[in-house]
Amino acid sequence: MANLKNFSNQVFNCSVFTIRCDNYFITKTNSTHNFFIIEPNDWANIVAITSNEEVILVKQYRYGREKFTLEIPGGMIDKGEMPLVAAKRELLEETGYLAKNLQLIGVADPNPAIQSNKCYMFLATELEFTGSTYLDNTEEIDIITVSLNKIPDMIEKGEIAHSLVITAFYYYNLLKK
Asked: CA of 136: how far to CAs of 45, 51, 130, 148, in Å?
């Protein structure tokens, strides 16, 4: 069974993603269908753990949910930027922390049904606080530190509900086995 792409057109472009429309011939049903694909940059998310076994979280307003959420630091990987470099940059920009040790712990497809990007997840340790953040003009962020052992309970209670953050902690737990 093979689906054949007939054509692809970009239908929308903004600063954080584009949308394209792909027309596919579906061999199983002998029909054609349009699929709309969101094309954001890849993302980098960082599980940052202090020497006191505390996780650095960001409390950030999310316009899609119209509320504040608890997440790990992270953001878009700029075109041509390596994921590791983006992770270091995002951690510093959002929290003011530099990581002396940063390692890739997993990669996930955020939503392969309608998105083309990947999310790279890193573990940051040996942190140094610089005190300086560099937030985008649309970011409203508070920094919170939480004991690492409280994270599973926070996920279970829905205090941390962002699926990519939960995925990052899953990868972290695999690393620790």
From this structure: 16, 28, 18, 28
Domain ranges of the chain: 3-39, 41-176
Beta bridge partners, 100, equal none
Query: pTM above the 0.90 mark?
Result: yes
89-101 residue pLDDT tens? 999 999 999 999 9
CB of 99 closer than 8 Å to CB of 129: no
Number of H helices and E strands in the chain, helices first, is: 3, 10
CATH number of 41-176: 3.90.79.10
Helices (H), 96-158: 151-156
The three-class DSSP label of residue 47 is strand
